[in-house]
Amino acid sequence: MRIFLLCIVSVLTLLTGCAQADSSGDTKEFVLAHNQPTNHPIHESLLDFQRLLDEKSDGKLKLKIYANGQLGSEREVIEMTQTNAVQFTKVSASALESFSESYSLFSMPYLFDSQEQYRDVMKMPEIQDAFYNKTEDNGFIGITYYDAGVRNMYTKDRMLETNEDMHGIKTRVQPSKTSVQMIEALGGTPTPMGFGEVYTALQSGLLDAAENNESALTDNKHGEVAKHYFYTEHAMVPDILIMNVEAYNQLSDEEQQWVREAAEESSVLHEPRWDERMLEAREIAEDEMGVTFHEIDKSSFMEAVKPLQDSFQENEATKEQYDLIMGEKENE
Ligand code: GCU
Fold this sequence. Notes:
The protein is an alpha/beta fold. It contains 14 helices and 11 strands. It has 2 domains: 2-147 and 238-277, Bacterial extracellular solute-binding protein, family 7 (D-Maltodextrin-Binding Protein, domain 2); 151-236 and 280-331, Bacterial extracellular solute-binding protein, family 7 (D-Maltodextrin-Binding Protein, domain 2, 3-Layer(aba) Sandwich). It has helices at residues 2-16, 41-56, 74-82, 93-96, 115-123, 125-132, 177-186, 198-204, 215-218, 245-249, 253-289, 299-304, 306-311, 319-331; strands spanning 28-33, 61-66, 88-92, 140-146, 151-155, 170-173, 189-192, 209-212, 228-235, 239-244, 292-294. This is C4-dicarboxylate ABC transporter substrate-binding protein.
């Protein structure tokens, strides 16, 4: 099915000779691909983006959304966005790390002190400039971000009290060098893989653990196999909406403005939805899936990743962004 859809998108790209899946008359239709199911809050926020774009452009700019990883893993859809086979994708900033190193900063453990601080920083125009517009040479630009919550460790059955308990635990991480280094620093055994493979890998025993926000337990069903969730709060990695740079440059100033406004407004609408849904996810995981949530002392986890955090001070690829975020934290 996925191959079939990929073929359709490729054929459309060849036929139109450009980005738009359809650009008949005054209407331009773009493809947006992402990897979450249609009951996931991020999908609903992307539907807001679709609706707002339609409204602002008076029906001239339309989006066709392929959810559920139908068009491929995050890595695959980023590649498709680079070649304009799809125009938009929403991916984790961690997945962008191997395309543009500046994004590795978001996988730095304990970069932010609180969710409030993270949201404030992500809204700063200087931060947006420092990340979003630096990837033109890679074929895409960032348009907005969507909160993807706080990432925590969860295991099938192992108990975690300190990072020492991570020893020998096969832990899934996103395909990101920094995330691999983080699990190594904690003493675990990192296993990078695409999100779509995690459920089966947990079930088959290839993995003992993974790390993510609460909705991974419910919307992605990991709570059926992973029964313990620990509030290590080791990362807040935003989802980024990226767009093919040629498709963007082909838009008029007014059209670009509609895209930016619709995206930004959908990002704002996303936050209360996200908060509500994470609380709901915890309730469902506890009551219906038998997952136990553990508040733990994070200090040993924070201590263990200190050398990795410190390495960012010297990292030229992320220096500008690092200094900006640290400066903002000091100003608080
Ligand atoms: C989050 C994020 C996804 C990402 C996933 C992962 O759920 O929103 O974009 O794919 O984490 O861990 O891979």
